[in-house]
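Customer escalation, tier 2.

The customer says the design service returned an amino acid string that "doesn't look like it belongs to this structure." They asked us to rerun it and document both sides in this ticket. The original structure tokens are below, unchanged.
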């Protein structure tokens, strides 16, 4: 027994020594590789190192959203800076930020006009002098003004840049009564001169800060010294103590001579600097101005700063230290915008009931919200919509084919070389006369409205286009909601835009979920058709009209009507209503996703009337009693 016990102890000791050896060995050699490394990577917990902290410090500083953000535009004249500024202001304002453009050129023209008027007051008014005085009244500046050797002009340029900067920082910082927003002069240079001359403390910058503010400093900012000055003015810890302000530079670069020529033509036609000049004189003056800027231009090269470089108006983007909202909101928008001529058509889903009677049973209303299919009138509208889109698509193609040797691309330039006038090999079918992007909600009635036998385009069903979620009040009329919860209903009447339905959404929530849809629409180069519902369309039309988004609840969205949105050369949109089927009564309304009218029209002001436009095709359609047998190409 004793020998057996000793042998057992010796065996146990040997096992312990082997275990200790294996434990020690595991620290001295690499572990066996994970056979699934390329599929799953390492399963070990990530280790925090000094290198990791160092590399992520800049990201940590820039990821947090500042209350104030300054977007500083950089670029030579004719590079699309003002186009970018307008689009940014439009988009950011629609999504809820308070945004304003401070164009240094406006300040420069006003300052030069003041000086020029004083200089010309004593001159004799002959024909040539009158023309000069007229240009002086506009503050027009020829190329000589931008000569770096012109000391007087250089001093004035520095002065107006400082004025615009001062106004911009006052606007970023000021907190005051909201009602003064519509009464102040914004970034008016004239207002700036009055404030400077009267030493006003800034009381006319009355805007109540409810959201973050974004200021766009629109100037050439063509030298490193000027950009250093802008950054110092916006972020100086002494001057701006307690006023955290983020700064990002957006540089527009262009080396495409054809694109530059087109931009120059647009600039001389619209800029006050060239009023009174012939076309040849204006082009020569602009080119001379650009040459003077090019002699001292310095592109952004400091990678410690946050910047975006846009090449040839978004054919290529370079981003550096762009995090937070800039990465998820502004960069996709910059990539999407283009100056193509494609139209956007927006309409409600077809009518699901034909008698217009209100469904009494609330449970039935809730059950039918997502399952309704089109009634007879809704199917008539579907046929009329297909005919209308066909006629508009053919018109769009004819306009494009008239443009020789140019083809619409996906960049802001909208231009690329092509051996043929148009190339549409990516069309969904050889029989299709044009390409189109069809977007609908996931509701069956919306999908059915956009499904056309003659035009079998793919239908992109997007849940973000679904109607406003009314939560616990789904299927209830406003009168029923008022009776069930009078306190909440009172808040709804006071602020229909920000009052959230219990367990559902408010219009402000709706705007945020529609951001990706706006990006998708903006990036298209072919006609776009959106079939959705009242609340969604109100928010979309506020974007295309560039109207205050807080007032979108008052936009009327009638049945059987298409909103046609066409882009302008300046970056905005023209919106007109096209009636496809005339309603014979006000009872023709969509089922429960349409929020009913209340005594105070907060969900659709029927007093608002927009001009109606009908094409010859639509008139033929109405005259034919809704027949789709029109003489259109197969």
């Amino acid at each position: 027994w004793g020998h057996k016990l000793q042998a057992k102890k010796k065996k146990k000791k040997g096992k312990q020594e082997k275990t200790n050896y294996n434990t020690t060995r595991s620290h001295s050699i690499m572990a066996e590789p994970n056979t699934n490394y390329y599929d799953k990577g390492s399963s070990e917990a990530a280790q925090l190192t000094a290198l990791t902290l160092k590399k992520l410090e800049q990201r940590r500083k820039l990821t947090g959203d500042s209350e104030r953000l300054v977007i500083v535009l950089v670029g030579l004249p004719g590079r699309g800076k003002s186009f970018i500024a307008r689009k940014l202001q439009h988009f950011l304002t629609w999504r809820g930020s308070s945004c304003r453009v401070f164009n240094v050129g406006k300040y420069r023209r006003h300052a030069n006009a003041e000086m020029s008027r004083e200089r010309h007051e004593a001159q004799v008014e002959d024909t040539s002098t009158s023309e000069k005085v007229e240009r002086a009244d506009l503050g027009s500046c020829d190329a000589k003004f931008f000569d770096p050797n012109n000391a007087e002009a250089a001093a004035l340029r520095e002065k107006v840049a400082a004025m615009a900067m001062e106004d911009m920082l006052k606007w970023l910082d000021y907190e005051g009564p909201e009602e003064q927003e519509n009464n102040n002069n914004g970034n008016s240079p004239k207002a700036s001169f009055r404030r400077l001359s009267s030493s006003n403390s800034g009381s006319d910058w009355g805007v109540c800060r409810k959201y973050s503010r974004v200021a766009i400093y629109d100037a050439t900012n063509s030298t490193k010294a000027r950009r250093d000055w802008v950054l110092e003015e916006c972020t100086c810890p002494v001057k701006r103590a307690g006023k955290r302000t983020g700064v990002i530079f957006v540089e527009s670069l262009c080396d495409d001579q054809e694109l530059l020529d087109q931009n120059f033509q647009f600039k001389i036609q619209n800029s006050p600097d060239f009023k009174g000049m012939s076309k040849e004189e204006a082009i020569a003056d602009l080119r001379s101005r650009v040459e003077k800027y090019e002699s001292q231009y310095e592109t952004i090269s400091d990678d410690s700063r946050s910047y975006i470089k846009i090449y040839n108006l978004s054919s290529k983007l370079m981003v550096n230290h762009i995090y937070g909202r800039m990465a998820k909101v502004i960069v996709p928008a910059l990539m999407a915008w283009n100056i193509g001529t494609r139209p956007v058509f927006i309409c409600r889903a077809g009518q699901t009931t034909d008698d217009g009677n209100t469904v009494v049973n609330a449970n039935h209303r809730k059950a039918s919200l997502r399952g309704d299919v089109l009634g007879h009138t809704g199917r008539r509208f579907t046929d009329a919509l297909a005919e209308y889109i066909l006629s508009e698509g053919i018109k769009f193609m004819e306009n494009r084919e008239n443009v020789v040797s140019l083809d619409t691309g996906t960049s802001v330039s909208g231009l690329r070389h092509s051996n043929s006038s148009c190339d549409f090999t990516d069309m969904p079918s050889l029989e299709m006369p044009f390409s189109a992007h069809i977007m609908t909600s996931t509701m069956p009635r919306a999908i059915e409205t956009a499904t056309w036998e003659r035009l079998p385009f793919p239908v992109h069903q997007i849940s973000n286009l679904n109607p406003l979620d009314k939560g616990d009040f789904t299927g209830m009329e406003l009168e029923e909601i008022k009776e069930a919860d009078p306190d909440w209903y009172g808040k709804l009447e006071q602020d229909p835009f920000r009052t959230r339905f219990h367990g559902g959404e408010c219009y402000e929530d709706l705007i945020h979920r529609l951001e990706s849809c706006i990006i998708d629409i903006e990036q298209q180069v072919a006609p776009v058709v959106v079939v959705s519902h009242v609340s969604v369309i109100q928010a979309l039309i506020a974007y295309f009209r560039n109207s205050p988004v807080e007032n979108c609840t008052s936009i009327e969205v009638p049945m059987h009507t298409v909103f046609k949105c066409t882009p302008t050369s300046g970056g905005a949109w023209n919106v007109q209503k096209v009636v496809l089927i005339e309603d014979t009564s006000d009872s023709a309304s969509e089922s429960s996703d349409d929020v009913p009218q209340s005594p105070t029209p907060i969900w659709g002001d029927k007093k608002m009337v927009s001009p109606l436009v009908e094409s010859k095709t639509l008139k033929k359609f109405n005259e034919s009693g809704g027949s789709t047998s029109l003489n259109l190409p197969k």
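Tier 2 assessment: The sequence is consistent with the input. Residues 2-28 form the longest helix (27 residues). The longest strand covers residues 245-253. Sent an explanation to the customer and offered a walkthrough call.
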